[in-house]
Amino acid sequence: LANVQVLKGPQGTLFGRNTTGGAVLITPQKPDSEREGYLEVSAGNFDMQRAQGVVNIPVSDAFRVRLGVDYQKRDGYLNNVSDIGPEEFADLDYTSFRASAVWDITDRLENYTILKYTESSNNGAPFSAFACNPASVFAAFCTADLAAREAAGKNDEYDVYSYEPESESELEQAQIINTTTWQFNDNLIVKNILSYAQFESRQNMAL
Q1: Per-residue pLDDT tens digits for 25-43
Q2: pTM (two decimals)
Q3: Residue 132: helix, strand or coil by DSSP?
Q4: Which of 66, 82, 102, 133 lies 20 to 30 Å from 163, alpha-carbon distance?
């Protein structure tokens, strides 16, 4: 990242009416003229594996490219006690790519493009009951279910119950951002920003 800005208070003028509580601006590192990069690999419990890498390529004096990838996979830490569907929940399995390019068309005209894509697929994280309201409509069913789970020793804080045989949570997101900056003179800069984003999410799990 190049920088992170925290803007307090309503920011509706620049960022829309939903930013009543402030805004956090995260700016990725822009391609530069140095040939460089890094690779970071980590591992953890629940068979967690993660790899992050970035490479910066100055193709020419006027054109620069920066490529980044983030991959993580981890087993779930919530145990399914229903014997229906996956054995575990709250797992991770995602891949995210980002490609950015800067083209200095002239000394005063710059074109900056960012492409982002993220794909995630896991078993989801269903809710689980730990207490029942005796006045509710389903009190008898809920109480009997909790009693059976406690008798079987399957009512731990990491135990969840699922009745969905094909529980899954899928997400796919893509975005392109193009910024053209024209420095008309020392006192005037004209900037045009175009952006298109697509977000798809599919949730199929017990609630």
Answers
A1: 999 999 999 999 999 999 9
A2: 0.82
A3: coil
A4: 133
Lookup result for tokens 């891949």: 95
Q: How far apart are CA 172 and CA 174, in angstroms?
A: 7
Burial 51-82 (b: 16+ CB within 10 A, else e): eeebebebeeeeebbbbbebebbbebebebbb
Question: Phi and psi for 181 in degrees, rounded to 5?
Answer: -120, 125
Smallest CA-to-CA distance from 30 within 66, 82, 79, 74 is with: 66
What is the CA 145 to chain-centroid distance, rounded?
35
Residue 122 corresponds to which amino acid? N
Q: What are the E-state strand segments in the chain?
A: 3-8, 22-27, 36-44, 48-58, 63-74, 78-80, 88-89, 92-104, 109-122, 159-160, 168-185, 188-204
Polymer length of the chain? 207
